[in-house]
Design a protein that fits this description.
GO terms for molecular function: carbohydrate binding; hydrolase activity, hydrolyzing O-glycosyl compounds. InterPro entries: Carb-bd_dom_fam9, DUF5916. Keywords: Membrane, Transmembrane, Transmembrane helix. This protein is mainly beta. The protein folds into two domains: about 45-245, Immunoglobulin-like, CATH 2.60.40.1190; about 285-290 and about 290-305 and about 320-505, no CATH class. It has three helices and 30 strands. The strands form four sheets. Strands 2, 3, 4, 5, 6, 7, 8, 9, 10, 11, 12, 13, 14 and 15 form a 14-stranded mixed β-sheet that branches. Strands 1-30-29-28-27-26-25-22-21-18-17-16 form a twelve-stranded antiparallel β-sheet, with helices on one face. A two-stranded antiparallel ribbon has the order 19-20. A hairpin with a 4-residue loop joins strand 13 (about 205-215) and strand 14. The longest helix is centred in the N-terminal third of the chain and has 7 residues, at about 25-30.
C-alpha cells in the first residue's frame, strides 16, 4: 500500500522516423494537439458448417467436408513489416459436429528445410518456435478467449487470453491434433471438444484469429491485418467466425479427480515399527452454466504442478512467480489483475504458504476450497472464492534448530469477491473485496506471526478503444488491518497511446 510520500512517475517516449533529430520539447508540447487517425482493419469473415462426413484427425485433409469448407486465407504480415501480404501463406478450414470443432490448416513453406523450434516440451515459447495458432473469442467481447497452437512437430500449446492480449499457458486441457510434413508445406488437423470451451448458447458469431510464426523466414503473419506496434494475438483485431447453424448447446460438464497417497517409514537401527502415513483428497470442476464454472477441492495435492524457474534475487523486492495450480487458473484475471503489477490486491500464491516470526517460509496445508467464476451474461463477470488452511508451527527466532517448533501459524480463511461490468466495446469497471481471517487467533500469544485479519476493498477501471490505440487504467484500493492503520490507501493511473510512429505513456 502507498505511504505518505507520493511519487509521480511520468514516462514519455516519442519516436518518429522523420523527426528523430527534433528536440524532445517539441514532442512534449505537441502531445495535447497530436492526433493520428488509424483506420480499423477491414473485418474478415469465415463461415463454419457442420461436417458432412466423419473426420479422422490424421493430418491429411482428404474428407469431403474439407473440400467444401469455407477458407480463411490471404494472410497479412505483421512482422517484419505490416503493409504487405505474407510470403509464407496459410489456409484455414473449419467444421464441426456434435462434439468437436475441427480445423484443417495448410502452412505453405517457400523455403524447404528443417523447421526451427525452441523446445519439444508442451507450451513452448511463441517467439522462437515455428507454429500456427487459433485464437478463439466465443463471447464476442474481444477481451477473453482461448488459444490452441501447434508446432510442425505436433507439440501442443494452449492457454487463456485475458485483457484481449495477455496469454497464460498454465491452463491445460485435452484436445487432439496431428501434423503431416511435406517438402513445401505442413498440414495441421485439430479437433477441440466443445466441452473444453466456454460459450453462450445460440450465439452464431464468434471472434477468431489465426496467427502463423515462420521463424525460418523471420515472418509473423495473421488472418487479419495487425499493426506492428500491437501483439498479433490482440483480440481487438480478430475477424468473425460465422456459424451457418448454431453450435451444439453446451452440455453439463462435471470432472472429479480423487487421489490417494500413502507411505510408510521405519527406523531399522532403532527397531521401531513401520509408521504408515496416508492422505486422500479430491478436485472437482462443475460447469454451472456454459460460462460459469465451479471449482471444488478437499485436501488438494499439488505435487504434479510444474516447478518454478529458479531465479537468484539480488534486490530487496520479492518475486511474484506465476500461479500454476489448476484450481486457481480459470478466470484468474478477475482476481489477479486488480491494481498494477507492483501493487496487486490479490496474489493467490500466498494461499498455502506463510512466514513465521523468524521470517522462514512455511508450507501450510490447504484443507478445502470453493471457487465460482465466469460470465453471468455478456456484460457481467463474477468471481467468488473461499479457502481454508490448517494451523502449523514455525520457528520463533532465527537459528532455531527445530524450524517447525515454536511460533504459531494459525489457520487462515481467505475470501475473495469480484464483480466486473463491461463497458463499450473493450473496457470494464470492477470492484474487489479480499479478506484474510485468522480462525484460531489468540491476541495474548506473542509467538503468533499473523494478525487477526486483513481486508482490502477497491475499484478498478480499464479502458481500451477498438484498435487498442488508446489504453487507460485507474484503480483505488483501501486496506484494513488491526495492526497497521496508517498508509492504507493505494492508487494509480496509467494512460497510453500507440500508433505506427508514436508511443506515449503517462503513469502515476
Amino acid at each position: 500500500m502507498s505511504g505518505t510520500n507520493i511519487t509521480y512517475d511520468i514516462v514519455i517516449f516519442a519516436q518518429h522516423l522523420a523527426l528523430m533529430k527534433q528536440v524532445l520539447l517539441v514532442a512534449i508540447i505537441s502531445i495535447p494537439f497530436f492526433a493520428v487517425s488509424q483506420n480499423l482493419p477491414q473485418e474478415a469473415k469465415v463461415s463454419i458448417s457442420k461436417a458432412i462426413d466423419l473426420i479422422k484427425v490424421d493430418g491429411i485433409l482428404n474428407e469431403e467436408t474439407w473440400a467444401k469448407a469455407d477458407v480463411a486465407k490471404d494472410f497479412y504480415q505483421s512482422y517484419p513489416v505490416d503493409n504487405d501480404f505474407a510470403t509464407s501463406q496459410t489456409e484455414v478450414r473449419i467444421a464441426f459436429d456434435d462434439n468437436f470443432m475441427y480445423f484443417g490448416i495448410i502452412c505453405y513453406d517457400p523455403s524447404p528445410g528443417k523447421y526451427i523450434v525452441e523446445s519439444l516440451r508442451r507450451d513452448w515459447g511463441f517467439r522462437n518456435t515455428e507454429n500456427v495458432g487459433i485464437y478463439i473469442d466465443p463471447f464476442n467481447d474481444k477481451t477473453n478467449g482461448f488459444i490452441f497452437a501447434l508446432s510442425p512437430y505436433n507439440v501442443q500449446r494452449e492457454g487463456l487470453i485475458a485483457n484481449a492480449r495477455d496469454i497464460s499457458t498454465d491452463w491445460d486441457n485435452k484436445w487432439y491434433s496431428e501434423v503431416t510434413n511435406f517438402e513445401d508445406k505442413w498440414i495441421v488437423e485439430i479437433a477441440i471438444p466443445f466441452k473444453t470451451l466456454r460459450y453462450k448458447n445460440n450465439l452464431t458469431e464468434w471472434n477468431i484469429q489465426f496467427i502463423r510464426n515462420d521463424v525460418k523466414n523471420n515472418e509473423i503473419s495473421g488472418w487479419t491485418a495487425v499493426a506492428q506496434q500491437f501483439r498479433p494475438s490482440n483480440l481487438g483485431f480478430a475477424g468473425k467466425l460465422i456459424w451457418n447453424e448454431p453450435p451444439p448447446p453446451p452440455k453439463p460438464n462435471i470432472s472429479v479427480i480423487p487421489y490417494v497417497l500413502g507411505q510408510a517409514t521405519k527406523d531399522y537401527e532403532e527397531g521401531t515399527d513401520a509408521e504408515p502415513i496416508g492422505k486422500i483428497g479430491l478436485d472437482a470442476k462443475i460447469a454451472v452454466t456454459s460460462s460459469l464454472n465451479l471449482d471444488l477441492t478437499v485436501n488438494p495435492d499439488f505435487s504434479q504442478v510444474e516447478v518454478d524457474q529458479q531465479i537468484v534475487n539480488l534486490d530487496r523486492f520479492e518475486l511474484f512467480f506465476p500461479e500454476r495450480r489448476q484450481f486457481f487458473l480459470e478466470n484468474s484475471d478477475l482476481y489477479a489483475r486488480s491494481g498494477f503489477p507492483s501493487s496487486r490486491a490479490f496474489f493467490s500464491r500466498r494461499i498455502g504458504i506463510a512466514s513465521d516470526t523468524s521470517g522462514n517460509r512455511v508450507e501450510i496445508p490447504i484443507l478445502f476450497g470453493a471457487r465460482l467464476s465466469g460470465k453471468i451474461n455478456k456484460d457481467w463477470r463474477i468471481g467468488l472464492m473461499n479457502m481454508q488452511t490448517a494451523a502449523r508451527k514455525g520457528s520463533v527466532l532465527p537459528g532455531t534448530e527445530n524450524v517447525n517448533g515454536g511460533s504459531n501459524l494459525s489457520g487462515q480463511n481467505y475470501t475473495a469477491a469480484v464483480i466486473q461490468r463491461q463497458l463499450w466495446t473493450r473496457s470494464n469497471i470492477g470492484a474487489i473485496f479480499i479478506n484474510r481471517q485468522s480462525t484460531q487467533y489468540d491476541p495474548t500469544d506473542t509467538t503468533n506471526s499473523t494478525s487477526a485479519f486483513n481486508r482490502v476493498a477497491g475499484v478498478d477501471f480499464n479502458f481500451a478503444d477498438k484498435t487498442n490505440t488508446w489504453i487507460a487504467n485507474v484503480y483505488v484500493h483501501t486496506s484494513f488491518d488491526p495492526v497497521s492503520k496508517k498508509n492504507a490507501i493505494s492508487q494509480g493511473s496509467f494512460v497510453g497511446y500507440q500508433s505506427r510512429h508514436w508511443t506515449l505513456f503517462y503513469g502515476y
